[in-house]
Amino acid sequence: MKHKDDRVRLEMYTKKYWKDMTPKAKLTYFFDYYTWHTVIAIAALIIIISTIVSIVTHVDTDMYALYVGSCYIEGDQVDAMENDLSKYVTDLDGDKKNTPEITPIFLTKDSKGNSDSDYAMAMQQKLSVELASGSPFLFILSPEEYAHFKDIGLEFVNVKDVSDKAVDGVVVKKKDSKLAKMESFKAIPDDYLIGVSYMDYPASTSKKKLKMYENTIKTFKELIR
Length: 225
Description:
5 strands
C-alpha cells in the first residue's frame, strides 16, 4: 500500500510542478522515470511491425545462401545477386518462381583477430544462429572465414569429381565459377570461395528440407561446371 501512496504523491507532485519546469528539467525527468517504459514500448512496436511485414511480404524460398566476409555489399546489390543466382535455382514449392535468399554477414576483425565492434559481434551471433538452424546453405566465403569454418569442424560437400579446381575438393574460388561472369558478383573478391555445407540429416527430417539440400547441391555443381 505504501508504494501505491508514494506513486500517487509523485504523480500529484509532477502535475503541480510540470508547468513550471524548464525544457531541460522536463527532459531529465522523462529520462529518469520513463526511459525503460519507452524502450520496451518501442521494442514491442518494432516486433509487431516486423511480424506484419514478414507476413505480408512472405516469399517462399527455394534456396538459402550465406555470404560471409569483410567485403561490404549494399542491399540493392544483394537483390541483384539473388536475381542472377535465380537462373541456377530449382523451383522447390511449385510456385513457378526460382527464389534464392542471400543473407549477408559482414565480419571485420582487428589486428589481433578479434571482432572490432559491437556490430561485428552481432554479425557473429547472427552467423551462429543461421548455422544452428540446420538449413542447407550455399556459402560464399572469404578465405579467412573458410579457414575458420574448417577449424571449427564445419564440413562441405565433396565436388572434386565435378571441378578439378576445387580447393580441398570441396570449395571453388569465385573466379573459377559462373559467378565470375555475373555483373552483380563483380564486387566480390575473386579469391572468395563457394561451397555447400555437408548435412547428415536424420530420417525424421522433412521432405522439403531434404529436397532443398539436394537442389542446393545441384545449383552449386551447375555453378562450378
